[in-house]
Fold:
Amino acid sequence: MLAGCRKDFPTYPLNVSAVTDSTRPLTAVRRRDEYIARSDYAMQIEPYLEQFGPGQVYLLTLEDLEKDPHGTMRALFQWLGVSPDVPLNLEEKRNVGTKPLYRVRRGMMPIVGLMNDYWRWQAQIEPRLPGWAKRSLDMLLFKKVSRRYIDFRPAEEYLRPILQEKTRTLERLLGRTFPMWRTLWKPVPMADR
Structure:
């Protein structure tokens, strides 16, 4: 929900790469509650607000941090009682690249499942394989997938009403709105994301 429905899939590529999800986004969202639960911020935040009180919990969005990193950090420092003059190097970006995404090839899931479940494979066999054998096995079992060819639109349409209601609950809880979560409120063309 941080950027609307599309952000409901922060772990979808990771799950595909980790071989815990090989389904299309819409199927994955319908089968696995975790995709929606991760975007239910009201459910996640409310226990902290109840336990510590609203004055003891500082909340910000990634969009605020991206839009005005210095201002957002200064506001956080002020809230913490830390000097807002602490030097910040916000120009250096870290973890901005994306790892290649691989999907299990059709019919190979049972083999991959056995390899992942079999502790001897991971602890004793795989580390002893020469590099060429690991690469050959990877080519046999997995295919590289480009994120730009994953069609999230059907899943977004499915998620939109669910996440809109969850966002309204969050807005009531926090007393603020989230218009920056654009795909949550209306479809956004891929070129504008």
Remarks:
- The beta strands are 101-104, 142-145.
